[in-house]
Amino acid sequence: MAAKEKLTAAQVSGLAALLIGTLVITNDFTALNIAIPAIERAFRVDVTTAQWVISGYVLVFGVFIVTAGRLADMFGRRRIFLIGTAIFCLFSLIGGLSENAWALLGARAIMGIGGSMMWPALIGMMYGLLPEEKAALAGGLLMGVAGIGNGMGPMLGGVFTEYLSWQWIFYINVPVSIIAALTIYWAVPADSDEQVKEEIDYPGILTLSFGLFGLMLLLDIGADIGWFSPVTIALFGVSVIFLVFFVMVERRAGQGALVPEEVIANREFVMINLAALMVSAIYFGGLMYLPQFMMKELGYSAAQAGAGLLPLLGMFAVSSFIAAPLYDRLGPKLVNSLGALCLAGGIYLLSWLDASTRFSGLVPGMMIVGLGTGLFYSSLTTAGITSVGQARSSLASGIIFMVQNAGGAVGLGLTTAIVVTAPSLAQGIERAFTVNAILALLAVAVILFFVAGPLTLENLFPTRKTEEED
Fold first, then answer.
1. Element (H, E) at 270
2. CA 190 to chain CA mean position, Å
3. Contact in structure between 194 and 34 (CB atoms under 8 Å)
4. Which residues have C-beta within 8 Å of that of residue 60, sequence separation ≥ 6?
């Protein structure tokens, strides 16, 4: 049997630099959840307004990430990453210095543009740096460090909020972003200019951006203003019109399309995104409502609630690292199915909480959710990118992450609608988490039937093949 090819020193240096960049983005995604009450008090706004510090970032990030991924494939991933990092860094500083809520929300939204440029470019560089046979390693490292970043976020956010100020959540992005940019510039080679052979699909960018903006805005505010209100219906109609125009534009654009036909027509890639859409509510809902339960029912401080998520986020990081060897041994169908089953089981276990539940009663469910998150997302990302090929890796990662954000927005809106209409927070969480568990079970069915081939006994019970020596 041939020996496995070892990574070169340049590849190791490049991976280390890229993982620093991963920490920058993923830490920021979770740090502000803990600071929402402090932002409410600082600017004397209600939770609906303060919540847009998170929702606005996610909305803009989700709208622009597909375009950013395509531009990274076309014009160089390192170049797009560095531009995105500069935007993210500058508006983090502006966000921390904001003197009113609207300045903060504006800065946070523009940070979403920077983040949307950084993430798909970073993933494309990660998969491009390693040989194809080590694709699962790239996914495992990426999501493992993402889990560490997500775990650091609530803890750092809680510590800064309690002992310094919530503004430090923004200020810390500045030096860390500069370090990430410098290390990646030094350690990761630039893409060849010969790869830039296509023109920018401006009609596709505009129609998709307007369509996604309307749709994701609708999903975010629908629970508050009513799903059948005139504003919601109007937003839905406008979104559909722009998305229909997008499809028409793309059919005429050929290979220069923002989303080329071979990506749209790839059934496995489409089903991978459908599975991601179904389970994203669990992670987003857990990060939002478990800290709320700890602070409002258990009397935890912001720092304690942030640390209270460690069983979930720590297991997320650990299981992401073990997902790569499992992926190589069992394949995407089994690993993704196992991850989705853990997500369903863990969130269902958490749905049993009530007003008398102590922290120890939350730990088993959080650990199982964390296990499922690491197995599912790292393997799903690898399966999605390998299904379309290296040349479209940043675009594929952008689409996958956009779908995850859309699923999170839908799921968080649905979860919030259920929680706020319940007699108590505990009862609302119980009902919402049960619905999320059912959606995750539907995702398991999608994975079993459509990911990496049809459902057969060989897919479910793979036999170990004997490898011939070279």
1. helix 267-296
2. 25
3. no
4. 109, 110, 112, 113, 116
The rounded distance, in Å, linking the Cα atoms of 38 and 159 is 12
* 309: Cβ contacts below 8 Å, ≥ 6 apart: 151, 154, 287, 290, 291, 366
**Is the torsion defined by CA of 147, 153, 156, 158 positive or negative?**
negative
Separation between Cα atoms, residue 251 and residue 391, nearest integer Å: 20
Containing 358, the helix (H) or strand (E) segment is: none
Inter-CA distances, 205 with 62, 242, 259, 266, 389, Å = 13, 11, 10, 21, 22
For 132, which DSSP code? G
Q: What kind and span of H or E run contains 280?
A: helix 267-296
Query: What's the pLDDT tens digit per position in 193-228?
Result: 555 555 666 777 778 777 777 776 776 666 667 767
Q: Which of 391, 120, 403 is nearest to 262 (CA)?
A: 391
Could you write out the DSSP letters of every residue in 369-420?
HHHHHHHHHHHHHHHHHHHH-GGGHHHHHHHHHHHHHHHHHHHHHHHHHHHH
CATH superfamily name and code, 9-190+258-460: MFS general substrate transporter like domains (1.20.1250.20)
Q: Tokens standing for 183?
A: 């290390």
CA distances 28 to 114, 138, 286, 343, 351, Å, are 12, 21, 17, 23, 27
Give me the helices (H) in 188-266, please: 202-225, 230-253, 261-264
Rounded distance, CA 198 to CA 205, Å? 14
pLDDT in tens, 93-134: 998 888 888 888 888 888 988 888 888 888 778 777 776 666
Q: How far is CA 431 from CA 347, 425, 428, in A?
A: 11, 10, 5
In angstroms, the first-to-last Cα distance of the chain is 6
Residue whose C-alpha is closest to residue 171's, from 28, 47, 22: 28
Q: Where are the domains of the chain?
A: 9-190+258-460, 202-257
Alpha helices in 76-201 (DSSP H): 77-97, 101-129, 135-163, 168-171, 173-187
| pLDDT tops 70 at residue 35 | yes
Q: How far apart are CA 415 and CA 255, in angstroms?
A: 40
CA proximity to 446, closest of 407, 397, 395 = 407
Q: Read off the DSSP letter of residue 339.
A: H
Q: For 424-440, b where at least 16 C-beta lie within 10 A, e where not — what string?
A: ebbbbbbbbbebbbebb
pTM of the model: 0.70
Q: Name the 3-class secondary structure at 100.
A: coil
pLDDT of residue 90: 92
**Residue 147: count of CB within 10 angstroms of its CB:** 27
pLDDT range class, residue 258, cuts 50, 70, 90: low
- Nearest CA to 390 out of 189, 209, 134 is that of 134
